[in-house]
Amino acid sequence: SHFEDLFDYIVSVSADETQRLERVKHRDDIDIESVQARMRNQWSDKERNKLSDYIIKNNDANSALPQVLKIHHDILKRTKY
User: Fold this and answer.
1) What is the DSSP letter of 48?
2) Cα–Cα distance, 81 to 77 (Å, whole number)
3) pTM above 0.85, yes or no
């Protein structure tokens, strides 16, 4: 839809596909096949990341909060607030 042109910065959050499947399955109480059908209608990580200024890895190995704080600090530096 080209809405990306309306924003100063785009931040994407991604996780491993296995983790996403399990999280949505448990959150929405649906089967894996239904989650996979939803995911097929979404952009791939590669497509989304190509338009992103920042990418947060939301998986077991990386806590999201330090990444968010780093991005916040970087944006503040860039905008000189």
Assistant:
1) H
2) 7
3) no
Cα–Cα distance, 75 to 77 (Å, whole number): 5
CB neighbours of residue 20 within 10 Å: 19
Which ranges in the chain belong to alpha helices (H)?
Answer: 17-28, 32-40, 45-50, 64-79
CA–CA gap between residue 18 and residue 8 (Å, rounded): 31
Q: Give the model confidence (pLDDT) of 42-65 as tens digits.
A: 999 999 999 999 999 998 777 899
Q: Which of 18, 26, 13, 30 lies closest to 67, judged by CA?
A: 13
Cα 24 vs. chain centroid, distance in angstroms? 14
Token digits of residue 32: 């894996």
Three-class SS state of 62: strand
Task: Provide the token pair at 44.
Answer: 């791939």
